Amino acid sequence: MSHSTGPRTESTHYRLYEFAKSALVKIFVHPYATVCDLYCGGGVDADKWDEAQIGHYIGIDVSSSGISQRREAWESQRKVYTAEFFEVDPCMESIETHLKEEKSNSGDFVCCLQHLQLCFQTEERARRLLHNVSSLLKPGGYFFGITPDSSTIWAKYQKNVEAYHNRGSSMKPNIVPNCIRSESYMITFEVEEEKFPLFGKKYQLKFANDVSPETHCLVHFPSFIRLGREAGLEYVEIQNLTEFFDDNRAQLAGLITTLYPNLVDPRGRLLPRSFDVLGLYTTFIFQKPDPDFGPPLMTPYLQDGSFNHDEASTCVREWQATGWKDDEMAGHTEQAAPPTLPTLGTLPAPPAGLGNISEQKGILGPGPAELRFAEAL
Q: What EC number(s) does the entry state (predicted)?
């Protein structure tokens, strides 16, 4: 596998992220598939699609330079699969107007291996993205990718806030810490507050070897699931990358040992620093139901049968207006705790090698077990 040159290739973060992308593609994508790659800019992922033996590739990116790099990587290496490239912002424009009509609903897979979080600046941007994904997928197709794990990030931030308040009266009133630090990275929220709006919660993420931080938005997973369903996509799984690695260790330990042997111990287990960095990210998987194949997947509702989707949307809008406080997030208020999600029940068989489909856990979705909130949305 080839990688771009430069100092970032030496960082633990870069190597783990590249491994995670390779693993997800290896496990999920089958030979001869048609794949649409959102925010595909650059040529670093080209070899992943070779190894997956796909049949056709559709590259979409907002950057003309990114599209040019991706096209050049495909042309120069004489890939066996066919390819098309489009300069489109998938969270701002309708992709159907740019692609030929026969290309709509033709993708076996749509993936977003980077930048999904930037689409959560506003609800309108996230909604547009998911409607574009649905228009690209054929019935039965999957939408998958990687994004920073808001469950992990927000739980770490809440721990900082709680520790700050526990220090007593010596702390300045009405001041909330806005930074998370570890040996490998630093996360700084742009606004010092204890509330988590559903969209537009910005933060800066800087890894140890990076020259400058990157700006991201937290992805509010319940809203992600809600908007996906509105677009005709059913939630399958959101899983922290550390759990994804553990569930698929039999296949992935050999891959990571071959590519980056200094990220795991001799038994194939993640080293502490690798675990810390990988735990900042999560996989996500949605499916566009195929009515001819069988009953569609159903994103789980709350256990209370009287709580329907319209009421859920109203409830979400109310949360958007008020925000969540840390004590409400942790379930420590005197108000009744929200009901937990039921198990997903019987789902269509996932692609070969995919880890077990897990129940959604935690208010923001699953994260490392020790950081999960006690109650789900």
A: 2.1.1.56
Task: Tell me the sheet residues that pair with 143.
Answer: 110, 286
Q: Which residues pair with 179 in a beta bridge?
A: 188
The number of residues in the chain equals 377
Supply φ then ψ for residue 221, to 5 degrees: -60, -45
Q: How many CB atoms lie within 10 A of CB 32?
A: 12
pTM of the shown model: 0.75
CATH code assigned at 251: 3.40.50.150
Residue 193 lies in a domain: no
Round to whole Å and give the CA distance between 39 and 370: 32
Kindly state whether residue 175 falls inside one of the protein's structural domains.
no
Range of the domain at 269: 7-149+216-301+342-371
Q: Which comes out higher in pLDDT, residue 300 or 58? A: 58
Q: Which stretch, 97-101, 166-170, 351-355, has highest mean pLDDT?
A: 97-101
Domain annotation covers residue 189:
no
Helix (H) or strand (E) holding 277: helix 272-278
CB < 8 Å & 24+ apart, contacts of 271-277: 273/12, 273/183, 273/184, 274/12, 274/16, 275/242, 276/182, 276/183, 276/184, 277/12, 277/13, 277/16, 277/184, 277/185, 277/207
Give the DSSP H or E segment for 278.
helix 272-278
User: CB under 8 Å, gap of 24 or more: what pairs does 63-71 form?
Assistant: 63/87, 65/41, 66/39, 66/40, 66/41, 66/42, 67/40, 67/41, 69/41, 69/42, 69/43, 70/40, 70/41, 70/42, 70/43, 70/46
The answer to whether residue 332 is domain-embedded is: no
pLDDT > 70 in the chain, percent = 68
pLDDT digits (tens, 9 = 90+) for 148-172: 999 899 888 888 777 777 766 555 5
Count the Cβ atoms, other than its own, within 10 Å of residue 323: 14
Q: Which of 203, 118, 227, 210 is nearest to 154 (CA)?
A: 203
Count structural domains, the chain: 1
Which of 25-29, 127-131, 181-185, 295-299 shows the lowest mean pLDDT across its residues? 295-299
Question: 227 is written with which tokens?
Answer: 């908007």
Among 6, 22, 4, 5, CA closest to 263: 22
